[in-house]
Amino acid sequence: MIRIAARRRGLQCLSAALLFMVSAPGWSRSPEAVPYRWTNVTVGAGGYAPNIVFSEVERGLAYLRTDMGGAYRWDDATQRWSALQDGTATSSYMGIESIAPDPRNADIVYMAAGVGARQPAAILRSTDRGRSWRTTPVPFAMGGNEDGRGMGERLAVDPNQTQTLFFGSRHDGLWRSSDAGATWAKVAGFPVAGLGKPASRTTHGGISFVAIDPTSGRAGGGSRRLWAGVADPGTANLYRSDDAGLTWHPAEGPRLFAGKGVIDRRGVLWVGYASGLGPSGIATGAVWRYGPDGRGRDVTPAAWRATGAEGAFLGVAVSRRQTGTVAVSSVDRYRHGDSVWISHDDGRSWDDLGPRSRRDVSATPFLLHEGKGADFGHWISGLAIDPFDPARIAYTTGATVYAARNATNPGTINWAPWVRGIEQTAIITLVSPTGGAPLISGFGDLAGFVHDDLDRSPQPTFVNPYMSNTNALDYAGMAPNVIVRSGSLYLDRPRDGSLGRSEDGGRSWTMVTVPPMGTPARREDLNGDWPITVSADGATMVVATPIPQVTRDRGRSWMPVRGLSGKTRAVADKRDPRIFYAVDIERGRVLLSRDAAASFAPVAGHGLPAQLRAIGRQGREAQSALIAVPGNAGALWLQAGDRLFRSIDYGSSFVPASEALSVELYGLGKNAVFAVGTRDGVRGVWRSVDDGQSWSRIDDDDHRWGGRYRVVSGDPRREGRVYLGTDGRGLFYGDPKEVQ
User: Number of folded domains in the chain?
Assistant: First the structure.
């Protein structure tokens, strides 16, 4: 057995030494810590939520688990979702493998947390509805962001003895706790011991769900009948125990993975089967019903079979109020579209809710980002019927959570996003221009947005071309209505280009194409691999293709850039349209162009280290190590390895600008520089208002977001404002508390 207490790392903020004074007039040395107020930039969900679970004890209480953005709790009193893990510093714990509210006490909830097989895993326990957690690291690996994350629930609480929990692991069999999750022991009698951790990124499903029959025991004495689904090849895929887990027997069923299993109040088990782990790559599936005696029968909706038996069923839900009422949802049904079916007669007949469903996405118009009307959704694996209201059904998709309050209506069923408070997205890049909207973002999966109002879900505008990922953004420093972007298409669809230019601050776009190059000639601008840069006046654009190209007529004609190595990003001076910069990592030098990127030549770069070592994320999603200061010709910052340097003479000389801070990401704001980094063993978000001579921490222990940071930038127009893009918890803006 194991018992490992959770530990919180103490924070130590030590005084920074003053290294070099190049401050602008009026700037002062910053204090050691500056309290900030952090607020999500509103989009409204946006990512994959594998499941939603209602409390069976209290009306209006529900929990949502996401694959890399942590967990949320819905409270009817506030009418919003609350993030439950913003204080989590361990990245892996933001991938939630399973969640289990206590079936007797509304204040208690458990979670299994671990993003992948090679990452830390833990069981989290809360007695205050997730406001605080006790953490027990465990030796069995999890896969909260791996294939099969839509299965479950793997974590189950015995309703007749709530100190007893079971957890079905992916790689190491079935586990049991007798002390409310504080310690765990492997169940020796379970016939599937596990396949072990995969040697590569390939995963497997392992034990996909555990379901405990409340009718098989008495309060205080524990339950006798347990079910466990398995999603590993070469084994039986459903097992039953009638002696509280001591011995197990295989149950009949199809030769498919048992993906989702729930038990109704009579002790009837409903199982959704799938040919693959999901959420993609599933060919077919089935729905089965099992009585308490273990006998099963196929109750798969006939209409689904009639349309080709495509996809499977990873959403399964039962009504606690209406006996015999069960709902299932399809996944990977691409030709006919996914849907929800409901039965009120124990699966003998089914009603397809899809044809009479309507969706109102006015509160989250970003759901129209692919240029089509809001459909039923994709990657549907979470499905729940409110235990206190059979007419209220919710389901999760790869982009949102939908809910209806009239699901038993024989006419039109009205669905709307149920997402207030949920922000689960991955931000790749962002810019805060010197004019126009305060923020323009580049998202993974959702393209990107112009955020005119940070507290309102934005309209989709990133079209022509539409690219699901925006990898790079730039704006013209003296003409900020000119925006350029490059992006990639997550799905395998035909594309004409991956570069765009906007003349109205990102609200409309024209496609930019680069001529074929190389031998044999090929289009290098189709996949979003190469960033695009625009001059201060918006007249010149440079693309960092294998043969860098420059245009001065909005892309009608191009010429190769002299003196710039292939795949090297150019950075435009934000004041002088003739000036561009670049960093030659291989040769350890800074390059300068004085002829609007027609040619580049090395500059002295005095004060820089001999090796300009790259750090952090590389490739097309990497942020530029070189940033020009808005409004100041010749002023720029450079990240070399984990250190910052600053120049005010077009790169001829640099001075150190990160003091004792080890920098991962950085960005510039009005009279400030912001960074994600570590100092004195403390990793966090930092601000300097004296050109990097001293740094103040501006996040705190309640705002860590798993430490999953992707991009940071200040606002050039609003002093103190910072924007922070995370990998899973969305986009934040922060302001000093003292100025609000």
Answer: 2
Cα pseudo-dihedral 570, 571, 575, 576, rounded to 10: -20
Residues 6+ apart with CB under 8 A from 211: 156, 226, 227, 228, 261, 262, 263, 269
Structure tokens at 459: 């309209």
pLDDT on residue 22: 31
Residue span of the structural domain in which 326 resides: 45-417
Q: Is residue 49 part of a domain?
A: yes
φ/ψ of residue 262, rounded to 5: -135, 150
Q: Which position has the higher pLDDT, 586 or 327?
A: 327
Q: Taken in order 182, 108, 214, 316, is the CA torsion positive or negative?
A: negative
343 with 429, same domain: the answer is no
Residues 511 and 398 in one domain: no
Q: Of 67, 338, 690, 691, which is the active-site residue? A: 67
What's the rounded Cα separation, in Å, for the pair 19 and 168? 55
Note the pLDDT of residue 685. 98
Domain stop point among 360, 389, 417: 417
Number of Cβ atoms within 10 Å of the Cβ of 179: 12
pLDDT at 18: 26
List, for residues 700-712, the tens digit of each pLDDT value: 999 999 999 999 9
Looking at residue 622, its pLDDT comes to 87
Q: Kindly report, residue by residue over 677-731, the tens digit of the pLDDT.
A: 999 999 999 999 999 999 999 999 999 999 999 999 999 999 999 999 999 999 9
Same domain, 432 and 365: no
Instruction: Tell me: do 187 and 280 sit in the same domain.
Output: yes
Bridging pattern class, strands 71-75 and 61-65 = antiparallel
Domain boundary among 373, 388, 417: 417
Per-residue confidence (pLDDT) for residue 494, from 0 to 100: 60
The stretches of 403-531 forming alpha helices (DSSP H) are none
Distances (CA, A) of 387 to 226, 270, 321, 420: 21, 16, 6, 21
Instruction: Examine residue 260 and state whether it is found in any structural domain, yes or no.
Output: yes
Show the tokens assigned to 14. 């030590």
Fill in the amino acid letter for 45: A
Among candidate residues 520, 522, 566, 509, the one with its CA nearest the CA of residue 543: 566
- Which among 433, 480, 437, 627 is positioned nearest to 41, based on CA atoms? 437
Strand pairing class (226-230; 238-241): antiparallel
- From 445, 537, 595, 700, active-site residue: 445
Q: Name the pLDDT band for 615 (thresholds 50, 70, 90).
A: low
- Note the pLDDT of residue 312: 96
Distance, CA of 569 to CA of 471 (rounded, Å): 13
In whole angstroms, give the CA distance from residue 473 to residue 620. Answer: 11
67 catalytic? Reply is: yes
Give the helix/strand (H/E) hosting 358. strand 357-359
Between 44-58, 469-483, 512-526, the lowest mean confidence (pLDDT) is in 512-526
pLDDT at site 46? 94
Is there a catalytic annotation at residue 386? Answer: no
Q: Residue 384 is part of a domain; what is its CATH number?
A: 2.130.10.10
Average pLDDT, the chain: 92
- Looking at the fold, whether 467 and 328 belong to one and the same domain comes out as no
In a domain, 35, yes or no: no
